[in-house]
Design a protein that fits this description.
This protein is 30% helix and 24% strand. The chain has 445 residues and is α/β, with parallel strands linked by helices. The protein has 2 domains: 165 residues, Lyase, Ornithine Decarboxylase, Chain A, domain 1, CATH 2.40.37; 249 residues, Alanine racemase (TIM Barrel, Alpha-Beta Barrel), CATH 3.20.20. The strands form 3 sheets. Strands 4, 14, 15, 16, 17, 18, 19, 20 and 21 form a 9-stranded mixed sheet that branches. β20 and β21 form a beta hairpin. α3 packs parallel to α10, α6 packs across α7 and α9 packs parallel to α10. The longest helix is centred in the middle third of the chain and has 19 residues. It is globular. Bound molecules: ligand LLP. The site of ligand LLP has 20 residues, from α11 and α12. Ligand LLP binds next to α11 and α12.
Amino acid sequence: MSAVLAPLSHDPSFAELLAGRPMLRMDASAGLCIEEVPLVRLAQAVGTPTWVYSAATLTRRARSLAAALAGAGLAAKMHFAVKANPNLAVLALLRHEGLGADIVSEGELRAARAAGIPARDIVFSGVGKTLRELRLAIAEDIAQINLESAEEVDMLSALAMSLGRTMRVALRVNPDVDARTHAKITTGRSENKFGVDIALAPALYARICALPGLEPVGLAVHIGSQITQGIASFAAAYARLGELVVALRAQGLGVRRVDCGGGLGIAYRDEAPASAQAWAGAIAAGLGGLGLEVMLEPGRWICGPAGVLLAQVVLQKQGTARRFVIIDAAMNDLLRPAMYDSWHGIVPVSPAAYVAATAPADVVGPVCETSDTFTKGRALPDLPSGALVALLDAGAYGAPMSSTYNSRPLAAEVLVHGADWSVVRERQGFDALLAGSRIPGWIGG
Ligand code: LLP
């Protein structure tokens, strides 16, 4: 995984895209298959757009990350960042692989519990946990709450005391390290809202130790997401945390655990992110030898490459200057290109289209926004109405960032397991789309 490749000056070809994604295979008669299931069959049975996840890929990636940690001599505990993919089947499958859950809301807490993840394997992160959410976390007696500010420290102490309880907490430190990723997903700079300035951490940690209702267990850090520019920013963050652990202990304060966050990137186009082994090595270098329990909150690395968004061409529109391939998936489904200008591989499902001559095309959705554009000037074959395409690496921050904008129901989700597959979330119906809306009587008939 993640061998360092020379950056491509051109978009990867369909064959190059499939070569890096072992769950996908172009079959000369059945077309593009995910594991043993032809995508055309899923389109017929479930319709489009549909998110399709590979169970084998989820399992393989969870295991290889665990193996990398073990290989670096770390007895680390992984909590899957539920925000990356809160589908209950995905959570249950990862639970089976021994992962717990990193949650950021009551909804994610409920999803994790509904998927069978015990409270003792749940960590609560986030800058704005409400009193109601904290009360629920205490009632469930989850493993740990990561506190992100002095204000939140006081809030939780008072709440826990009023409930006659003591809660295990870690202090999320902002190490002021540049993760060199997209500005919208950088979290570890001092100008970001996340965590507590590392310079203020010793005093605040001492305060946590002194306050009733809180049992300090250690520190947490998360510097950003889709980190692909080498391992240096991770290494710097973990080294700073390691120094902080030593300093806190020298003050006589107990620190037994460090939660190392998530953030390791994946190759969507030609990025060459550090390997899982390098990530584990950076953790070991910064924090190994301190007798710490290590935790990790990976999201994208585990589930991103495990999913595709299957879509159908509505029509191909020849503009004066450009060819538009208009598909039935849109920015309300996969928001990432509109929000972060992110690149996703787009591969035709039909064997004939896969080998046909290509010409530049813009792939767009039907939503009434110019940003509803998945790609511009991509080399693609003729894709007439009804043609199917797979948008790759859509398993993380795909379905969970969907909306119903333009009154488009949420797409279905399917989990493939070998030659078998199951709908793991039904397509939203139009009744469900309108359910809950009310026209007050005073508006009149
Ligand atoms: N832990 C915390 C505290 C986080 O905030 C996040 C992600 C993670 C763990 C997991 O990070 P990962 O391993 O997945 O990089 N919607 C954006 C990504 C936002 C990430 C937010 N926090 C995207 O589509 O690229």
